[in-house]
Amino acid sequence: MHNTKKGFTLIELVVVVLIMGILASVSVPYYYKTVETSKATDSVAIGHMLGNSNRMFRLDQPAATVSGQITNTCNSYTCASVPATSACRLIACSYVARQDWNQSSYNYYVCNGGNGGPCCANSGGERGVSCTRRGAGASGSYANWGYRFYDSGRCEAIGGAPDCPKF
Q1: Is residue 60 part of a domain?
Q2: Which of 9, 51, 52, 155 has a C-alpha 20 to 30 A away from that of 94?
Q3: Would the pTM count as exceeding 0.90?
């Protein structure tokens, strides 16, 4: 009769755990970057939409300028009740669909030159710039990611964000 024990030795288990730890330490940062890049791509799409709606608004109303942050408060206005220079005019007057702006991974601003929000100040004074900036939930190297969208349709990555995707 042979007395063989089935199972793993302690050394074998330690080696397996060590290999799994090394794989996790390499793959987790790539996973987080992929998630952040996906959020940034969504932000670029919404930023382009805001930039286009801002240009359409200015074509319809050339004398009017709007600036400021887009938040859920904008969803409660009607076109007749929104302040004349508020960026909320884009939503209230149906240039952009209502959505849950506060749950987004990014903050959205519509700029009139340097006015409108924190990422508008470096726009070079260009009128009608729409820009996005990372929300408060970000951390690490992703916290400063953002994009600027110019009247010409050009997109500029700021804060180390990935280049603007081509649509």
Answers
A1: yes
A2: 155
A3: no
- The residues facing 157 across adjacent strands are 147
Question: Is 62 a domain residue?
Answer: yes
pLDDT in tens, 150-165: 877 788 888 888 888 7
For the chain, state the CA radius of gyration.
24
State pLDDT tens for residues 33-69: 888 888 888 888 888 888 889 889 989 998 888 888 9
Q: Which helix (H) or strand (E) holds 25?
A: helix 10-60
* Residue of 134, 143, 137 lying closest to 108 (CA atoms): 134
Q: How many domains does the chain have?
A: 1
Q: Are 106 and 135 in contact (CB under 8 A)?
A: yes
Residue 164 in domain: no
